[in-house]
Amino acid sequence: MLKQIDFTKLPITEIVNEIIFTAAQAGASDIHFDPAEKGIKVRFRIDGVLIDYTIVPESIRKNLIARLKIISGMDITESRLPQDGAIKMTIKNINLDMRVSSLPTNEGEKIVIRILDYTASLKGLDSLGFSPVNLKKVKELIKEPNGIILVTGATGTGKSTTVYSILQTLNTPEVNLVTVEDPVEMNIENINQIQVNSEIGLTFAEVLRSILRQDPDIIMIGEIRDDETAKIAVRASITGHLVLSTIHTNNALNTIERLTDMDVETYLLASSLNGIISQKLARKICPHCMKKRPAIDYEKKLIKANLGVDITELAYAEGCSECVGGYKGRIAIHEVLVISQDIRDAIANGMPKEELRKLVYQGDTKTLLQDGLTKVLENITTIEEILRLVELDDESVKIVTAKDNVNQQQPLTSNQSETINNSAQSVPIPPVNNDVEMLDV
Ligand SMILES: [Zn+2]
Fold this sequence. Notes:
By secondary structure, the chain is α/β, with parallel strands linked by helices. Helices cover 35% and strands 26% of the residues. The chain has helices spanning 12-25, 61-71, 119-123, 132-141, 159-170, 204-211, 227-238, 252-261, 266-272, 297-307, 341-348, 353-362, 368-377, 383-389, 395-404, 414-419, 435-439, and strands at residues 28-36, 39-46, 49-57, 83-91, 94-105, 108-116, 147-152, 177-181, 192-195, 218-221, 242-247, 273-285, 290-294, 313-317, 327-338. Helix 1 (12-25) crosses helix 2 and helix 10 crosses helix 15. The two termini are 28 Å apart. Residues 286, 288-289, 317, 319-320, 322-323, 326 line the site of zinc ion (ZN).
């Protein structure tokens, strides 16, 4: 994709606009301006992967950095300290909202632009890739007048998109909806959004205390990062508010564990928690170059064990002019846990994790792996992509493969035995780090 631009003939404003416009059109989430020996290397992050775009020559390095700093409202005379800025601009009729960050490195200043893309959030809950069963659960969850709903996942898993989509759904004239965020990622009409500013003491906890005096119905907390915020979230929900927030955990089980580790009364937590939506983003297979290949033995076993389905072939894509390496766009894979009375009791009674795990995955809750593999069978993504995202020694996986396992008699390799060493069951789970080798067909 490396592009040759004749930088000497263009004014700096046009160079910057061209880079930003191209990135936005390509669906990039970030633009990196990396200091290099002979200028600045420009890279785009598309579908989660960084791709080289162009190299800006040394002769215009200073101008480029200065221009980026000016349009993002940074101090152009300061190059020794990190700075934050923002750009709102319209290029060729595309409205762009961007967050900009500068960082001094030993090679010079590095600038990263995050392009905030609201289009996914604006399309609504129905277009986020939830399976029909999960979508129904989410819609039921957000109907509750009080309680806590958590969206969990690592950075860059689309948590904000899900939260904003839920907020859009809940945003009706009859309710007072207040958010406290750091940062406010998307402006939504008719919602009071508050930006945390810890420098002046305006912390999540501080804002939340004030919000509770503002007669709210629904409160969105950007992220539960500390005990105090968790405590106030619980208090807010048991006093009759619907609380929506995010937390940095892998799955529902880890989320419960993380919350019970926090300084929150477990009986209050047990009664307030309504649901946990865990998610990851999988790259979608390119429909233009998709082909089928025979499935190998362990893929058949994995899918049989997790979905109870026999397969003979799987989709793959080599890459074409329409995509990057066989992938184009992304889709979320989910695990949606609706907290049942049994789970509430288990949390309140401090049930050991092993038992809680059984309880969580005993019901109709599909694990991230199951949801991902379902999307593999629907030719939306590839098994390689799902195995890259979901660790096969994840606790949620073990319980499912143990329960539905049909290959108990299969002898284990030494690697496999090692992987499941801590599992209570003898389950053939493929070793995590060998997936490339095993998938090389
Ligand atoms: Zn393709």
